[in-house]
Amino acid sequence: MRGNKMNAILFHPPSRMNEPDPPLGVVYLASVLEHAGCATEVVDMEPQGVNLKQVRAILRSHKPLFVGISFMTAQYSYMKQLVRTIKSEMRDVPIIAGGVHASALPEDLLTDVKEIDYVAVGEGEKTILEFCDYLCGRSRLSDIKGLVYRKDGDIVRNPSRGLMTVDELNALPPVRWDKLYDKKIYYRLPVYGKELVPYFSLITARGCPYPCVFCDEVTIWKRRFRPMSIDRIISETEFLYNRYGARDIQILDDAFTIVPNRVHQFCDRIIESGMKIRFKVCAHVNTVDLDILRKMKQAGVVQVGYGVESGDQRVLDAIKKNQKLEDVERAFKLTKEADLLSFAYFMVGNLGEDFESVKKSAAFMKRIDPDFLSCAILTPYPGSEIYDIASKNGWILEKDWDKYVTSAHRVRNYSPIARSDKMDAKEMLMAYYYLNSTFYFQKIRRRYGYLPFLNPLFYYEEIIKRIKVSGPKRFFYNAFNLLKQKLASLALKAS
């Protein structure tokens, strides 16, 4: 493919995130295309401020061989607007879509969105290269594994593509970070600071072996954990550190600590390098001990997130979380002992969970006392086991994919898109605000005393700082709902 004058444009549509993550999956695709000689432009529309009119200008400027679009479920309508804009500007340019949603429902996607020509199912690096070869006349469409497309009015699904091996992952070309970070558009307000700082992220391994029913990672990564080599990850880290001044990095692995020896090797290399970086990671409670937490602290880790989900063991068993409450409590205790910040991820609306279970979660949350909390509302994403269960039982209330978000704080007039076996949508929303408000008011009392309004720090940390992140309209809307639902949930709790 080298030597041919080819180019492609890879789009990532807008999302409803306050602080969108850099689309690393798209950058991996750009890296293999560039390495093979196909000049590639990455357009992360929301952070770059690219609207549909500008999309037309980008297309006219680049005249791409093809256009790729990677999107998640809640980006569905943005994706549809994007592909229709592309086809209205360049009717004959092939569009290939990928990502978790496309991989879970490729036939549905092609049926609903006529402007999409091809869907890449699963890991896309090999598929995108073979697809490019096909467009250049060097291979046959039927030979491209993992591709779904239309032919003679029918939808054809080629044989599935297997996952890349660890050796193949390590052999991928260097990540083209310049496709993202040269634009200097990703900033976050860190938990330990007062000003926005450049935000960077890394993936050190693909896949998670745990069988949680709510997770759609099985759609692409098949619950197979495949770690990349420490040499590769250190090289990527050093590049970000030296080229872009990366000092705050989020490691996006589902469970960073699955292989303890590997974590120790990574930390030792970071310590030896002398790089001063603040890392945030996620871990499974069964895979940490005081030794590994202290080593991570020494290497610059500042925060560890854990998927708690529920404070009711029956619920944890029902969702196949593979953890005991005592293990969760131990992990949070050790995290504090290692002087690391803890982040607890809870969820409401799970299988077997009623409001009594939610009360147990609130009590358990107080006991483990996390520094930060995120509460999600069960959202059956296509590809997850809970999607199949909810579909079979008629629990899904909404098929507007745009509404498939897990947080009421991200969408105005939010309503859960499904019910569960124990709770209806209204009860799930009430549980969400109950757990959030319980944590928030506990945090306020702990940090600012029982008269927080007399503490000047309260106004900076809880009002000014939050407005910086979300903007005044969203801040006051969320604050109003938090107070309103707190009163309603207290009444429900007392009943």
Low-confidence region ranges: none
What is the typical, i.e. mean, pLDDT?
91
Write down the domain tally: 2
Give the overall form: globular
CATH fold annotation of the largest domain: pyruvate-formate lyase- activating enzyme
Number of strand segments = 17
Roughly how much helix do the residues carry, as a percent range? 40-55%
Distance between termini? 69 Å
Rounded to an integer in angstroms, the radius of gyration calculated over CA atoms is 23 Å
- Our count of helices gives 20
Largest sheet: 7 strands, mixed
The SS-based structural class is alpha/beta
The strands making up the biggest β-sheet line up spatially as 2-1-3-4-5-6-7
Strand content: 15-25%
Superfamily (CATH H level) name of the largest domain:
tm_1862 like domain
CATH architecture of the largest domain: Alpha-Beta Horseshoe
The CATH class name of the largest domain reads: Alpha Beta
Description of the molecule:
There is one protein chain. The chain is α/β, with parallel strands linked by helices and 495 residues long. The protein has helices at residues 24-35, 45-48, 52-62, 76-89, 100-104, 106-112, 125-135, 166-170, 178-181, 218-221, 230-244, 260-273, 290-299, 313-318, 325-337, 355-368, 385-393, 425-448, 456-470, 472-494, and strands at residues 6-12, 38-44, 66-70, 95-98, 118-120, 147-151, 154-157, 187-188, 197-198, 200-202, 205-206, 226-227, 248-251, 278-283, 301-309, 341-348, 372-377. It has a seven-stranded mixed β-sheet, with helices on both faces. Strands 10-13-14-15-16-17 form a six-stranded parallel β-sheet. A two-stranded antiparallel sheet has the order 8-9. Helix 3 (52-62) packs across helix 4 (76-89) and helix 12 runs parallel beside helix 13 (290-299). The longest helix is centred in the last third of the chain and has 24 residues, at 425-448. The radius of gyration is 23 Å and the shape is globular. The termini are far apart.
